[in-house]
Amino acid sequence: MERQLTPREYEVLTLVARGHTNREIARTLQLAESTVKVHMRNMCRLIGLRNRVELAIWRERNSPMPGLAASRSSGGIAG
Fold first, then answer.
1. What is the pLDDT of residues 13-49, one digit of tens each?
2. Domains in the chain, start-ordered, CATH in brackets?
3. Residue 46 and residue 3 in contact, taking contact as beta carbons nearer than 8 Å
4. Residue 74: helix, strand or coil by DSSP?
């Protein structure tokens, strides 16, 4: 069974795609910065990407979470 991104990884991914730094993401989601780095590393490994820029592009092209395309046009996820 292939693992999918977790809800928390989707939150991190959305903030990465919006250009937030690891520190900003950690503060927004009330996580340790090292935890954000772990999420980033796990997502890159899972999807087969190398860095946050590729993650952001992948997120925009794939809209991995149902409803994200609609939320983009209405202002997106609060945060």
1. 999 999 999 999 999 999 999 999 999 999 999 999 9
2. 7-68 (1.10.10.10)
3. yes
4. coil
* Threshold 0.85, pTM exceeds: no
Q: Let me know if 66 is exposed, middle or buried by CB neighbors in 10 A (0-12, 13-18, 19+).
A: exposed
62-to-12, 27, 34, 44, 66 alpha-carbon distances in Å: 15, 26, 26, 14, 10
What whole-number distance in Å separates Cα of residue 9 and Cα of residue 26?
A: 12
